[in-house]
Amino acid sequence: MEKLKPDATGIYVAAHQAPGAIEEAIEAEVPLIVAVAEHIPIHDMLRLYQIHSILKTQWKSRLVGANAPGIISAIGKCRIGFQPLPCFMPGRIGIVAKSGTLSYEAVASTTRAGLGQSLCIGMGGDVLAGTNFVDALKVFENDNDTEGIVLIGEIGGEAEFEAAGWIMDYKKRSPNPKPIAALIGGVHAAPGRIMGHAGAFTLPGEPDALRKIRFFEHVGVTMVNHPAKFGDAMKQLLGQSGRATTGAATTGASQRRSMHTIRRIRPTTTSTRIPTQQKRSIYLHQDDSFDLLRERGIKVSEDPGNRRRRLLAIGIDRENLSPCVITSAPVNPSHLHLQPYLRKFPFDYRTGPDSSQLSAIASRLGLKSSTSLNFLIDSLISLYNSKEAFLLETTFIEEDDTFKVVTANFGFDDAAFRSTGRQSEIHALRRTSFEDPHELEAEKDGIVYIKFRGPGNIGTLVNGAGLAMNTVDALADAGGQAANFLDTGGKATSETVKKSFQVILADKRVKVIFVNIFGGLTLGDMIARGVLLAFEELEMRIPVVVRIRGTNEKEGQRIVSYLLFYLRVFPFFDAGGEILGDCGKWIAVTCI
Question: Which among 139, 113, 104 is positioned nearest to 32, based on CA atoms?
Fold first, then answer.
């Protein structure tokens, strides 16, 4: 490092090695660090951010990721990551996205429209992102090669709210602001479930997809419901703004170290709300959660009577890259989760809340700071850290100068077990008898399968969590209703595709299957061979619509063309989406 003095580094090692590699790059003061690894344990990243607080200001080192496809300058012809190069064209649109597959879709759309791209930044789908939307927007604002901006968000976190606030200020201060279009995935996400990406779920106090969309609309951002529409949308916006609508920028000079920006941390007390219970893969039954509390000397009671409840939770503040205490004012139990009554108090992972924060927490709870309350808070934080939780949510009552927990909703990071083998005793508490057997079977093959409730009859088979969420959303907009969410995972094989078909076909509601693939690491021809394998071995009796784009798309389309008697192949989403919408409305359920 001392001899080479690199401007950037790409970290491609496995999840359990990634934090060490990131830390080494930070200590060497490498200006740009790109981490692509997924399934990095949350607490490893919390420790990293707290130890290297310099990342909070991004003064010497800028981290992109983790769990990100990387960063690419189409103008400068430089990539750190694994984006599918054939989709890119030097141009004038800056793109920032949580989802890799949705960013590829946006790239392809702007390329088809003749706009091309300047700089594309993968924010990544992890709970804690080194670079957020505001960081990217600041770069695009000052980049002379960028004429228009595309932003792609999803459920989980408040980064989209932060971006909308920044955009509102930007439009006030700029006489000719660059046009911005956006998409939010997860409008029809299953309540309380993690949707593929490690961070694609709502922690306490975080808005849902619809609230994010409404906020963007409020500040004048043009919203689309599918990334294939970004090209036409940006072309129209650029025309209205008087900016160039075609042609590549003439220089890539402004891209050098352009991610070397300052990140400002939010105030440490914010309003928040709590959604419905999450169901992550290690989410404990309340009885088991109560046992963990009893082991730490915390009193529990399943009969609160008519006593006033208070909410106390330990969670993650994604924007401040730290754990936090979440509290509610003492109100009626039905109001505990309402936004006006909640506050978030971020604290240092290493030291916990200081005395002033503990006093503020007590005040918000309508209590005096006391030894009993501090013991409850300290015990929850100790449990949170030692067992690598992502959420410990409790409600408690006051009784005889002490406190009793009456409900406990505890979630623990599955990556700690899957990537490093830690927390096996917590993982052993998982009660699989309460879970869907088909979801469990899919999980063995690295497939994220979530069966939706209701009358949905369109099976979906998609690569990438963001694209899978958006596929469900777009089908609903077309009048259809998905029966499931299915993300094949980034390491899918032909056998994985066949098993994906198998689990979808086990749902007797399914009348048609939509295979929607945009390959980055996932190869289009490999997916196509999996489709062939499914037809050969599973005795397919229902229509299938296949869309394959991205890496090796032509070979993939050629392979599935052998099955044209049984299925239809579409290069663009709209055609397939319209047919599936009709199937969902029972207008044209025929063998395709």
Answer: 139
Contacts of 132 (CB under 8 A, 6+ apart): 123, 159, 162, 163, 263, 319
SS3 state at 499? helix
Q: Is 248 left (phi over 0), alpha (psi -120 to 50) or beta?
A: beta
User: What pLDDT does residue 259 have?
Assistant: 42
The widest CA-to-CA distance across the chain, in whole angstroms, is 75
Q: What would be the CATH architecture of the domain defined by 270-427?
A: 2-Layer Sandwich (3.30)
Q: What is the mean pLDDT of residues 340-355?
A: 90
The fold of the 1-64 domain, in CATH, is Rossmann fold (3.40.50)
Task: Write out the two tokens for 325.
Answer: 């205490």
Closest to 193 (Cα-Cα) out of 208, 215, 176, 212: 208
- Kindly state the tokens that stand for 512: 């048609």
Whether residue 66 is preceded by a cis peptide bond, meaning omega within 30 degrees of 0, is yes
**Residue 301 CB burial class (10 angstroms; 0-12, 13-18, ≥19):** middle
CB-based contact 470:188 (threshold 8 Å) = no
197 is annotated as an active-site residue: yes
Residue 277 pLDDT grade (very low, low, confident, very high; cuts 50, 70, 90): very low
Per-residue pLDDT at 582 exceeds 50 = no
Is residue 458 within 8 A of residue 481, CB to CB? The reply is yes
- The correct answer on CATH 3.40.50.261 for the domain covering 436-584 is yes
pLDDT for 545 beyond 90: no
Residues 6+ apart with CB under 8 A from 579: 545, 568, 588, 592
Among 197, 260, 337, 438, the one annotated catalytic: 197
Is the predicted pLDDT of residue 502 greater than 80, yes or no? Answer: yes
CA distance 187 to 214: 12
Looking at domain 67-247, which CATH architecture does it have?
Answer: 3-Layer(aba) Sandwich (3.40)
498 band by pLDDT with thresholds 50, 70 and 90: very high
- Whether residue 336 is predicted with pLDDT greater than 90 in this model: the reply is no
- Residues 6 or more apart whose CB falls under 8 angstroms from that of 306 comprise none
The DSSP letter of residue 279 is: B
**Average pLDDT of the chain?**
86
State percent of the chain over pLDDT 90.
Answer: 62
Residue 88's φ and ψ, nearest 5 degrees, are -90, 150
